[in-house]
Amino acid sequence: MKHTRPLSLFGAIVAVAISGFAFSGPSEAQDMKFFRIATGGTAGTYFPIGGLIANAISNPPGSRACEEGGSCGAPGVVATAIASNGSVANVNAIGSGAVESGFSQSDVAYWAQTGTGVFEGKGKVEKLRAIANLYPESIHLIASKDSGITSVADLKGKRVSLDEPGSGTLVDARLILQAYGLDEKSVEPEYLKPNQAADRMRDGAMDAFFFVGGFPAGAIVELASSTPITVVPIDGEGAEKVIGEHQFFAKNTIPSGTYEGQQGDVQTLSVGAQWVTSADQPDDLIYEVTKALWNDNTRKLLDAGHSKGKSITKETALDGVAIPLHPGAERFYKEAGLTK
């Protein structure tokens, strides 16, 4: 397999169920297709979900895992979930051929494919194609209780992490600040992964940080268990402005008790988490990968493997998808009666 970039650019590789490879004969092994899924930081939601999906599509019919009642995936496919900087980095990697697929926020995917928004003047990732919409990603704004921050406006002059370059969170944090009449100069910005920002907050060196991902997020759960936090609402006129200007945002609620010490529901915004690939990927391969994503055994794995797994459904697979479907995925959805 040709690599156009060093794999180390995307951090640690999670080797997932390759039992189909282990129990195949020599001729079958030569036909194995390695399929990478670029996810996000290890403390976020993309990473564990990517591992589940990679596991699901890596056990071909006839493999031990499949025969013993596990997930029966795509024939001849061995998938790996790769930690990365997030949405922007992932779509760029797909565009360059460095990875076969990856996760992206719906807004980032659209802007990349059309060369608009944050990608304006930077060139289109024209061949970006969708496999599936996965689940809604909640925009978290987490503040230390001691900071006194209870609204977006309170961030002014505070130490705030906006996430690292290449992340969809950084893109959205900038849009939210702007909608509330702030910008990066209004705060003391830092650009850290959520687990790093949480460590800084635990040490008293960070007032707030943004994170976009499914709840409950591991880094925030861990932080809340030792440090009093506030889940800050993103609502009111600022939120309405964001929704009005950018069609990919929707109102969202982080339920009461999601994080230790959180009392009451918190209103915020969300974007869709989507699995995307390149038009250059073979139609038959993406068809089999899509089919494996939505089989009954994968359903069991998703339901049991992560709290957001139950939100990943075939019925919502096309929600908020604003870029073209890959022909292989489109073929599956037509057969399933979800598209005409």
UniProtKB/TrEMBL annotation:
Q: Which PANTHER family match?
A: SLL1037 PROTEIN
What's the protein here called? TRAP transporter solute receptor, TAXI family
Superkingdom of this protein's organism = Bacteria
Checking InterPro entries in the record gives:
TRAP_TAXI (IPR011852)
| Source species | Consotaella salsifontis
